Amino acid sequence: MSPTRRKGLLLALLQGGLLLSLAGQLLLDRVTRPRGWILTQPVDPHLPIRGRYVNLALLVPAPEPPAGQARPWSGERLVLHSEADQVRADLAGPATPRSRSLAATPQGNLWRLGPSVAFFIPPEGADPSSRPAGEQLWVEVTLPAQGPPRPIRLGVRRGDGPITPLELR
């Protein structure tokens, strides 16, 4: 085998190993980390070629501020946790590392998390972000130890009923 082929094969094996380690980490997080449903607000990313994904802003119920403290207006940091299959938020304390909290902005009685997430949809599927009146789009997410939630699947809630997962595949 020539030295050039050997180097090419070594590079291919290295890239394959990196890809497999990332896939393994994501699968491990999905199995071991908490998960829950979170309300979404579809956002058009305003890109000329957007591909087949829906950009989702994540909305969580507003945590109550400590007694005697006014509700902050923006730039607050939240820590997410799963409670009864839904994502809830608590205000991050001064000792909470920035890597374990997310920036949020109040939006009524909800908080909009700073980074939106992309949910990729199949080429033949309809756009799930267009919902009739009375339906809310929800996304089931994995809550990693650091960083924004990772989307798993979409669901719809009609009124106060249960969340029904969408079959997009």
What gross morphology would you assign? globular
How do the SSEs run, as a string of H and E? HEEEEEEEEEE
The count of β-strands is 10
The total count of helices amounts to 1
Radius of gyration: 20 Å
Uncertain segments are none
Whole-number tally of structural domains: 2
What does the main sheet amount to?
10 strands, antiparallel
Oligomer: single chain
The end-to-end span amounts to 44 Å
Organism: Cyanobium gracile UHCC 0281
Protein name: GDYXXLXY domain-containing protein
Region (Disordered): 149-169
Can you tell me about this structure?
It is a single chain. The chain is an alpha+beta fold. The chain folds into 2 domains: 1-32; 34-165, no CATH class. The chain is 18% helix and 39% strand. It is built from 1 helix and 10 strands; from the N terminus they run αββββββββββ. It has one helix spanning 3-32; strands at residues 35-43, 53-61, 76-83, 86-91, 102-107, 110-113, 117-120, 135-142, 150-158, 163-165. Strands 1, 2, 3, 4, 5, 6, 7, 8, 9 and 10 form a 10-stranded antiparallel beta sheet that branches. The model has no long low-confidence stretch (mean pLDDT 85). This is GDYXXLXY domain-containing protein. Residues 149-169 are annotated as: Disordered.
